[in-house]
């Protein structure tokens, strides 16, 4: 094999070692594999950092700083953020409830995307333009929900396609419904839910039992002014033929037992 091919294979073997330790959540092994990679003259690439970040983020809240260190090192070595890096970073931020950090990451991505689009004069999805996935947005929405930042959830959901090229999925719409209900916008929540039920957002977005029970729970807590909305939601559930569950009964007892 040529020296170039041998070098490429060696890089792939190094990346395999990084991924192996990352999947085991062996942080010391993962970091050691990265250092050995550098020692042999291979600067870690985007794939290396994506696996390393996956391992760091998988350790939970106690290691959010480790994710940040890896991202800083990746930038120092000239690597731009990739989808895998963003997933790992926002997952760590979600687990520590750091919605402010998540919003800062998204602001940076939005600025980068705007610059790239202006330079190329194209749309998201063109070469070199990073489209943020709904998974990444949902990680930030989760952190916002943990701190009851309902108005910020609505603002992020409204801007996610234009600013980040992301399309809302079922999880995104669930946070949207929760935010509306928590803010006392029961009728607006029901209107959005009806659109979901009728397939207005495409076949990949559909009404789920978790949406029903979440809305019932939230509307039940803020019962004043929401009784009509609760009754409409129960009629929708009946129309969809969903079975009565213990969770549903608990919601109804909590709501009408006040």
Question: Which short descriptors sum up this protein?
Answer:
elongated; mainly alpha; single chain; 258 residues
Give the beta-strand count. 0
Major beta sheet summary: none
Structural class: mainly alpha
The radius of gyration over CA amounts to 22 Å
Topology pattern, helix = H, strand = E: HHHHHHHHHHHHH
Label the overall shape. elongated
Uncertain parts: none
Approximate helicity band: over 70%
Mean pLDDT: 81
Terminal CA distance reads 77 Å
How many H/I helices?
13
Beta content comes to under 5%
Written account of the structure:
The chain is mainly α. The chain is built from 13 helices and no strands. The radius of gyration is 22 Å and the shape is elongated.
Brief summary:
The protein contains 13 helices and no strands. With 258 residues, the protein is mainly alpha-helical.
